[in-house]
């Protein structure tokens, strides 16, 4: 399904910037610190990760409570790598992704991001494991908190 107010990439990822950040975009090899929420858009819009923090709010405290990954390292699903392209610190991007750029082989234990609660893990597993029966389209809200330069 295509959403008219979203930009669609060659891979099928659709995105919309809810807020544009400031500064440079992350480059390959740099570590990004992000906050994210995830929904099973194709299956009743179930939340599988929601930290109950407003995306785009003020950032206070350490990085420990946020998700980090090195851009270009293959640590995360392809859609997250692609979503970082053009994002800037402080920006919030909503992405809609088809299953083929989501969790590979329906196994979210290989690549991040992973739900932090048992119930979230169970909800996502349920959708990914029901071959052909459930639409596996996912929606994520991603906030780029900051970029840690490579050393």
TrEMBL record:
Reactions that this protein is recorded to catalyse: [protein]-peptidylproline (omega=180) = [protein]-peptidylproline (omega=0)
Domain PPIase FKBP-type: 29-148
Keywords for the protein's UniProt record, in alphabetical order: Isomerase, Rotamase
EC class name: isomerase
Top-level taxon of origin: Eukaryota
Enzyme Commission number(s) from the entry: 5.2.1.8
Any Pfam family: FKBP_C
GO MF annotations in UniProt: peptidyl-prolyl cis-trans isomerase activity
Annotated signal peptide: none
UniProt protein name: peptidylprolyl isomerase
């Amino acid at each position: 399904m295509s959403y008219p107010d979203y930009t669609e990439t060659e891979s099928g990822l659709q995105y919309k910037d809810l807020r544009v950040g400031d500064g440079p975009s992350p480059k390959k090899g740099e570590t990004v610190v992000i906050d994210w929420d995830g929904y099973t858009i194709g299956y009743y819009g179930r939340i599988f990760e929601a930290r109950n923090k407003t995306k785009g709010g003020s950032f206070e405290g350490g990085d420990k409570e946020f998700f980090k990954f090195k851009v270009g390292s293959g640590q995360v699903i392809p859609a997250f790598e692609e979503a970082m392209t053009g994002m800037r610190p402080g920006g919030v991007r909503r992405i809609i992704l088809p299953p083929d750029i989501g969790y590979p082989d329906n196994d979210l234990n290989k690549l991040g991001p992973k739900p932090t609660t048992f119930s979230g893990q169970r909800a996502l597993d349920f959708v990914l494991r029901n071959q052909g029966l459930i639409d596996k389209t996912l929606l994520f809200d991603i906030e780029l908190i900051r970029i840690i330069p490579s050393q």
